[in-house]
Structure prediction request, 976 residues.
Amino acid sequence: MTLADTQPQALNFECETGNYHTFCPISCVAWLYQKIEDSFFLVIGTKTCGYFLQNAMGVMIFAEPRYAMAELEEGDISAQLNDYEELKRLCLQIKRDRNPSVIVWIGTCTTEIIKMDLEGMAPKLEAEIGIPIVVARANGLDYAFTQGEDTVLAAMVNRCPDKAPVAETEKEERNAISKLLNFGRKQEEVKAEESEYVNHPPLVLFGSLPDPVVTQLTLELKKQKIKVSGWLPAKRYTELPVIEEGYYVAGVNPFLSRTATTFMRRRKCKLIGAPFPIGPDGTRAWIEKICSVFGTEPSGLAEREAQIWESLEDYVKLIRGKSVFFMGDNLLEISLARFLIRCGMTCPEIGIPYMDKRYQAAELALLEKTCQEMGAPLPTIVEKPDNYNQIQRIKELQPDLVITGMAHANPLEARGINTKWSVEFTFAQIHGFTNARDILELVTRPLRRNNNLKDLGWDKLVKEEAKV
Amino acid sequence: MKLAYWMYAGPAHIGTLRIASSFKNVHAIMHAPLGDDYFNVMRSMLERERDFTPVTASIVDRNVLARGSQEKVVDNITRKDAEEHPDLIILTPTCTSSILQEDLQNFCDRAQLEARGDIMLADVNHYRVNELQAADRTLHQVIQYYIEKARKKGEMLEGKTEKPSVNIIGISTLGFHNNHDCTELKRLMADLGIEINEILPEGASVHNLKNLPRAWFNLVPYRELGMMAANYLQAEFGMPYVDITPMGVVETARCIRAIQKILNENGVDVNYEDYINEQTLYVSQAAWFSRSIDCQNLTGKKAVVYGDNTHAAAITKILSREMGIHVVWAGTYCKYDADWFREQVSEYCDEVLITDDHTQVGDAIARVEPAAIFGTQMERHVGKRLDIPCGVISAPIHIQNFPIGYKPFVGYEGTNQIVDLIYNSFTLGMEDHLLEIFGGHDTKEVVTKALTADTDMNWTKDAKAELNKVPGFVRGKVKRNTEKFARDRGITEITIEVMYAAKEAVGA
Prediction:
């Protein structure tokens, strides 16, 4: 398919405000409770919320994980019961059973509708039971899927300690034993390490990534002599990074605009607006931008990028010249589309639940630049797409690959359209140079699978062209 | 407020949507916030459904919350009516949007003015009933709507079908082995010389609902879905129904005899005793298995049973009556229908457990230490922790409950499948026995996982820690590939940097 003749001059934004499917933002609990090891997430909602977490997310609560539902019953809805007392009862139970370092209350649509004052109750209860309570409103009225993480991280920004020395002594106290074992060695090591870095204001990165990816990105920056002072979230709530006025912050995920804003407004931090470290092109641009802010010349980056591209060639050649259509789900769409266009694909449409043009400005600019450099038509970006209309467009365009939410994947496959679940990109390790290959592993899998099957004539597995 | 980790039955709207999307050419509109439409994901993924799930969410967002839905829901209904021409559109809220207290009936009425198809509001209280009750209610509501409509128009057909016929009520999408059960029931009815009048709701057309009274009787194989409809049809048309689940040899025979009685009362002289005898003794392998030497070793073994009413009751009876297994307790999460369950199982087990709290179920299992558990996915995992085998016999559904191969639970083939399930769940009867006699046939030692011979490779502490973060099932591969990479390049010390360089180079 070609769109060359209708090529628009600049990125074309539309907002369909349609009926679209994506996961509920409370799903962030599924990865955040794993990431923050000393946390407990309490989702305050209805049976509908609970069944979602249990069922659609495939997160079955077998190993007694550190999250639960505070299931609202009729008495709660009709305000016959006292919210505060009820939550206190549950939180005391959690404290007794699990003793977490923090309880994160996840507000839902229902707490919004019944106007439960979670933010008002939390400080009081926190003082009463002696465990920090962080409140995040990860509700589907305001947010989509991955933005749930944004609400949690934004709430945690306010909990980051604001004085470095205080935090240091705290840490030292905790590590008293290991310090004893290490004698004075640690001090020297730290000094030696410091000299590996250029002198720059502290940099804190935000976004929840699996630990190996955190290590990888930290190392990439270390290679450029840039020190990462901390990550939000850290592995433990008790290790939240110190944030002082004037610190620099940079995000690793495109759906964290509230967290970015909170850093800037509440903590007076400076945001480094860069494309996101997804794909070798994005990773390089991200590092370059951070280097440029700190006035240091990146070294060996171009070579590194080239070397990664070289190692990707066996995958890239499978998708070069093919087209990809994003139905929109997890807000990673712009970054992924930019990377795939750099791989030589074309992309007629990028659906996305929510488009923050300011927070994603650098990413959008890189997308535009990438299209120009690759001679690819500029995609149309459709915010809050209408899935029904999208399916009509897919039928017309017959893209080689559709990246879609889980509800539409099987029906599209049955109609001979290759699909990949967008949620896989949410859960896979896709950031940084090292993991670029994993993105393409996912992207090419349907193509490789269907290549294997292509001679069998099993393309259309529905009888009449069902009206969709 | 209730601290909840696990639910055995879903919320009410799931039940309504199961009914709506089971029917042919019926669409459901959910009045719900973003993300509440995960039913579509469940149906598409679990059932591996080829068609788009006919459910659309009319999204409740901040605007709707502030100003009310105004035209939005009505527009979405009329739009879907124009796009796909469904026969019926069912509107349902979720737990969340039901508290907005918008006048959804009014939306339906307004949409009906424009729409070509029928529009209906699912009449369900989202805080008082669960998925199963809501499904039962919605099916009843749809049937009643079309019967009344046909009556008003004078379209009801008088009289019964010429030959004995049946409506099978309760087969639905996302039901536990429902598809295969349906096939088996059709075979059984064919064997009995009974025609299928209608199957509800799976694959049914609402236009045919007016034909329901033409059947000679209704068969309701599951206690959870179809009873309201059967009672309604009995009250309205005097239609008899059979609500004996044909699960297990004895109950299948009882179900067939109940059918025989109805036919006899309606002047058809049938006698199914020979058929029952033939099937029981020679076709189904279940009765023979019960008598075989293999099953002897199951005698008196302790088991517990837990699930929905239908399956937990049926399996309890099979274990106790047909296999001589000692059911210590039998439990159900259908609290709303507990009396029925007690009545069904009390003579076949020591104790009855009525709860939907999975921790209570887990504790009850731990307390009696049975040789096998027959329960839901949750009990399967409890069993894993306690090292007790578990056969899954009931919803909540899981991808494993949608097997590609033919695995019904009802009818005579169902009896075979259940025997296999039970037999394989116990540490195998015969094997167990032989193990006792000969002291085992496996060497007890665990073979050391020699993934790599000890190498001269030196892993730094950090790298080792990083390696430990790699999931166990690929760790060996990552280690080998990293060491190979390092060896090829003459690197002797593996740091984190080397690990990731290796990953980039070989995709380890």
